[in-house]
Task: inverse folding
């Protein structure tokens, strides 16, 4: 599927098991599904969706054994700034990820946690965010469950209060979190290094 400009996402192979460390720092093993990100004339990028044997799950831009020649900021994203996938509070059939977009400090990708919904939409791409939340069972909301903040309406995104956003989706939906991860973590870095246009639409 085409995500933005000429960037496409395709489900790749499923790995039997890989060793590693979970988001909470626990050594573990688990199978990973590979998702391939392709840009014409650029090296293949691979996202791993790993389900660890302790019950944790996360997404990360996987670092291959042989790293191709790529800009430093993109290389520094490999195996860093993972996105954890967890059960939505009080819900057994819905999962969620935190919607924290990346930005680049020098050549080091970092994340921004608190934004207005309008700021998040500007970084993600307003139409892309609307398309994502139009998928069945997908919703953007305040991560903290605060009642004193405006709703996270992508048709009229609020630009008054900075909050931490979360994206919820059905547990059986494997595609939505990878799409969101790519837009939140990978696309900002690709824009920074000049592999994608700078303007999110």
Result:
């Amino acid at each position: 599927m085409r995500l933005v400009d000429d960037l496409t996402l395709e489900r790749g192979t499923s790995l039997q098991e890989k060793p590693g460390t979970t988001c909470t720092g626990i050594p573990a093993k688990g199978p990973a599904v590979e998702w391939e990100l392709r840009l014409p004339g650029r090296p293949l990028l691979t996202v791993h969706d790993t389900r660890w044997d302790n019950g944790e799950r996360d997404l990360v831009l996987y670092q291959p054994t042989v790293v191709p020649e790529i800009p430093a900021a993109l290389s520094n994203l490999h195996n860093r700034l993972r996105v954890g996938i967890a059960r939505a509070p009080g819900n057994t059939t819905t999962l969620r990820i935190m919607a924290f977009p990346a930005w680049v400090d020098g050549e080091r990708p970092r994340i921004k946690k608190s934004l207005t919904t309008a700021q998040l939409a500007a970084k993600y791409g307003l139409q892309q965010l609307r398309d994502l939340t139009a998928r069945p069972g997908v919703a953007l909301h305040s991560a903290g469950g605060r009642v004193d903040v405006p709703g996270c309406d992508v048709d009229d995104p609020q630009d008054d209060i900075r909050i931490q956003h979360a994206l919820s989706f059905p547990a059986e939906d494997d595609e939505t979190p990878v799409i969101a991860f790519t837009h939140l973590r990978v696309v900002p870095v690709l824009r920074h290094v000049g592999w994608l246009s700078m303007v999110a639409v």
User: Anything to note?
Assistant: The mean pLDDT is 92. The helical segments are 72-75, 117-124, 126-133, 175-192. Residues 2-192 form one domain.
